[in-house]
């Protein structure tokens, strides 16, 4: 274990007021050890693998499962191999490589899955982890157990859950039925509401067709990558859970999802990743369409944290000139700090004395850095764009082209001294 589960059931006052609801809760799964509900499944899967004496694990999936698996494998002292599709949320990617895992990159998720499967059966022989593995799924039931307990051994009227493979929603329903059978609950009346992205809604579409069979989606396009499962392996179970519980399912547009991320952050202080915020977008849709009674008790499961996909912030601050500018500056700071040899020397030359292009070129030559004059001007433009130098003055000398002198900015001074320290 890494201390997963036991997450907070957050009573929402401001969001409830906004939607005109009396009793709204968020099951805040962002506070799990690796930032998503997936840890609930991983802990059981990894424990069983250890019990069976296996030495390594292998998976071919994006995002939260990979990020969770590498952490739990590290904790358990198991080897771990991950095949990631090229399109992966950046936060999850950083999380995954932090454990110095053995990683391969594949073209897309199907390819990643096949590669991982082949590795697990041939060369690598690690236990193949998928979100439909039985032990993994059993771990996910605990979300339901906790909701019941946290609501005083009762159920809300609706539980809203994002659906990718469909596993989590199905297992929440299974957990409720088990608690009812064991006598912990007096009734099992709760509507299970599933949310998907409009860019990949195979479970919603099957429900709308009145079908049990999933027709895989061919083309996917959405901001909520982690719930993009073209052919969801637990889709039929999710359909059954929604039907049995007399619930519903909705496909949400990216713009609705981004709005939901923003509402959740601004009104409740919870920064969620887009896939997770679909439950808030779904709730808003139910309210707008008058499909929910204001006295109903609702639990939205917010499955993963916003840092997994920090770029979503760009969408949230659109229109705020001040924050957009700040973001640009910080991004430049972050990504522009690795200076090449020539730029470093240019900064050093300018730090000694305000200089212009030709003079800098001469000084570079003296330092043994051989570059053509146009490339000096290119470096100056790039350093200016990165906010490391600014023009201090311009001067017309006889019939020669105008000379532009440069000096370091405050940021330029900091970056230069850091780079020099690194050089040493
Ligand atoms: C943040 C997040 N929410 C929801 C889901 C969907 O869960 P499931 O695949 O069990 O339907 C995932 C799946 O990885 C996820 O990472």
Strand content: 5-15%
Helix and strand element order: EHEHEHEHEHEHHEHEHHEHHEHHHHHEEH
- Gross morphology is elongated
* Annotation field: number of helices: 18
Helical content band: 40-55%
The low-pLDDT segments are none
End-to-end distance, in Å? 42 Å
The figure for the number of domains is 3
Strand order of the largest sheet: 1-2-10-7-8-9
CATH class of the largest domain: Alpha Beta
| Mean pLDDT score | 92
Please explain how this structure is put together:
This protein is of the alpha/beta class and 424 residues long. It has three domains: 200 residues, Rossmann fold; 97 residues, Rossmann fold (3-Layer(aba) Sandwich); 89 residues, Winged helix-like DNA-binding domain superfamily/Winged helix DNA-binding domain (Arc Repressor Mutant, subunit A). Helix content is 48%, strand content 15%. It has 18 helices and twelve strands. The strands form three sheets. The chain has a six-stranded mixed sheet with strand order 1-2-10-7-8-9, with helices on both faces. Strand 3, helix 3 and strand 4 form a beta-alpha-beta unit. It is elongated, with a radius of gyration of 27 Å. 46% of the residues are buried. The protein binds pyridoxal-5'-phosphate. The site of pyridoxal-5'-phosphate (PLP) has 20 residues, from helix 3, helix 8 and helix 12. The site of pyridoxal-5'-phosphate has 20 residues, from helix 3, helix 8 and helix 12.
Keywords, please?
single chain, 424 residues, alpha/beta, Rossmann fold, Arc Repressor Mutant, subunit A, 6-stranded mixed beta sheet, 48% helix, 15% strand, binds pyridoxal-5'-phosphate
